[in-house]
Design goal:
- By secondary structure, the protein is mainly alpha-helical.
- It has one domain: Transferase(Phosphotransferase) domain 1 (Transferase(Phosphotransferase), domain 1, Orthogonal Bundle), CATH 1.10.510.10.
- It has 6 helices and 4 strands.
- The strands form 2 sheets. A two-stranded antiparallel sheet has the order 1-4. Strands 2-3 form a two-stranded antiparallel sheet.
- A hairpin with a 5-residue loop joins β2 and β3.
- α1 runs antiparallel to α6 (138-151), α3 runs antiparallel to α5 (118-127) and α5 (118-127) packs antiparallel against α6.
- The protein starts with a helix and ends in a 24-residue tail after the last helix.
- The model is unreliable at 157-175 (pLDDT under 50).
- One of its GO terms (molecular function) is ATP binding.
- This is Protein kinase domain-containing protein.
- Residues 1-157 form the Protein kinase domain.
- InterPro entries: Kinase-like_dom_sf (IPR011009), Prot_kinase_dom (IPR000719), Ser-Thr/Tyr_kinase_cat_dom (IPR001245), Ser/Thr_Kinases-Pseudokinases (IPR051681).
Length: 175
């Protein structure tokens, strides 16, 4: 997914609805990014203010209606990375107003398990930084994940080789 988002961002496309539900696997277990219904071209951030993603994936700037850019996808990707690592769906039963208040006022972010490798935790934290300028670009996220893969003797799945975690079988409550 990181490579796919990096490609989209290189083409000035902001997906705006990055979430685990929009990660599809084909018959060969290749990941496909779905739901481009709210995607847009990344021009001028002041022109992009309408929220488009499920609340628990919304970057803080979207929650308050501030202008945003491709870094909102990076924030959402960080949440997805946590969900994939933990095999849990974040804030599934929490109402939008409660998520908004907790993220904005209390800087709520998912709790990273102690068993999570330090470098993976660092990637998650950088992606969901409250300040968009402090978040890495997706190209940098790809590089960090590839570096992590190299450190772990390529235990992560190389491009073109099927494998995966099939822990998402429940449906998220609609908002």
């Amino acid at each position: 997914m990181a490579r796919g988002l990096s490609y989209l961002h290189s083409r000035k496309i902001v997906h705006r609805c990055v979430k685990t539900e929009n990660m599809l696997l084909d018959d060969n277990l290749n990941l496909k990014i779905a739901d481009f219904g709210v995607a847009c071209i990344d021009y001028d951030p002041k022109d992009m203010t309408a929220p488009a993603v499920t609340p628990c994936y919304m970057a803080p700037e979207l929650l308050v209606g501030k202008p945003y850019n491709h870094k909102c996808d990076v924030y959402s990707f960080g949440i997805c990375l946590w969900e994939i690592y933990c095999c849990k769906i974040l804030y599934m039963d929490v109402k939008f107003d409660n998520i908004k208040s907790a993220v904005l006022k209390k800087h709520l972010r998912p709790e990273i398990p102690k068993c999570c490798p330090r470098d993976m935790a660092r990637i998650m934290r950088r992606c969901w930084d409250a300040e968009p300028v402090s978040r890495p670009d997706m190209q940098e996220v790809v590089a960090m994940l590839e570096k992590l893969d190299t450190k772990k003797d390529h235990r992560m799945v190389p491009v073109g080789q099927p494998s995966g975690c099939f822990c998402f079988s429940i449906r998220r409550r609609s908002f």
